[in-house]
Structure formats: structure tokens, C-alpha cells
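Hi there,

I know you've been waiting on this one. I reran it after we fixed the sequence typo, so this is the corrected version. Both the input and the resulting structure follow.
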Amino acid sequence: MSLTVTQTALDGVVIIKPSVFADERGFFLETYHQTKFAELGLPTDFVQDNHSRSKQGVLRGLHYQDERQPMDKLVRCSVGKIFDVAVDLRVGSPTFGKWVGVELSADNFLQFLIPSGFGHGFVVLSEFAEVQYRCTGLYAPETEGAVRWNDPQIGIEWPISEPTLSGRDQAAMGLEAYLENPAFRYRG
């Protein structure tokens, strides 16, 4: 089995396409293979798996855990379709405040690797979607933060204008407030 890795405009944020073997019975793929990931320079120290289910129009994000409990995320959509986004939150980075997005779906089998130092969010495009992500850090609520999904300084081109948000995401800070006490610094 092979993996195709495509670098995005944000250093370290990559799209991974696994080989999919399909026939009249269905399909099979490896979503993670430690040796192959290591050979490609991808993280292999995953310690937690998460799985969410959301209705159409639900937007989750832009979330992060700070440097006290850094967390890389390997994200895939196993049911339905989402638009997934990463935003560079590393102060001093040449791409600070920039974003990239990719459509992940049960049909395209793509995965999105979002390293620590980036905010992450997604919106559900199908009737519902199930999103699974492997994490290199354990969930630690005291280290989590969120940046507003529609901050004009970031300018994400979401494919939906009026999403359903949690109270936490409605109250998320803007990029200007984030800069007052940033969670990440660019290390070059």
C-alpha cells in the first residue's frame, strides 16, 4: 500500500491520499501505517483517537491546544463530507494568519495532517458527517483555545455563511485578541 503526500501552502500541513483497493464487495485501505508514515517524515506518536458526528451546517473550530500539551491531528471524514481548515497561529511565521482548506469525504478518502501551532476547524457539507482524527497529544482542557471561525483578518472562504456553532465557538476570540497572549511562536 502506498501513500501520496501533498504539501499545502502552509509548511507542515499536508494532504495524505492512501491507496484504496475497491471491487464489487466494497473497499479496503490503510489509514495509518507507522513505518510508512515514518519513512515519509510524518508523525507516528499518536496517543489518542477522536470521533465526532455532526449535522449539516455544523461548524467546529478553530480549535487548538497550546504548547503545554501540543497536538498534531490526522483528520479524515469516514461518513459524509466536510470542508476542513488549518490556520497558522505561530506568531512570527511567514504564513501567520493564513489558511488552507480541503474537502474530506467518505468518497475521496483524503486525510489532512494539521501540526501543532495551527488552528483547526471544519464545517459539515452533507446531511451529517463523521470525522475521525488521531492526535499526538492527549486532550487537556486547560491548554485549549479557539479563534473565531469568521475572523476577517484570516478571511476563510467557508462554503456556508450561517453555520451552527457551539457556545464556545460563538465566544471564540479574534486574531487581534489572540495576539495579546499567543499560544504559539514560530521556531523557524
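Quick highlight: Residues 149 and 163 are 10 Å apart (CA to CA).

Best,
R. S.
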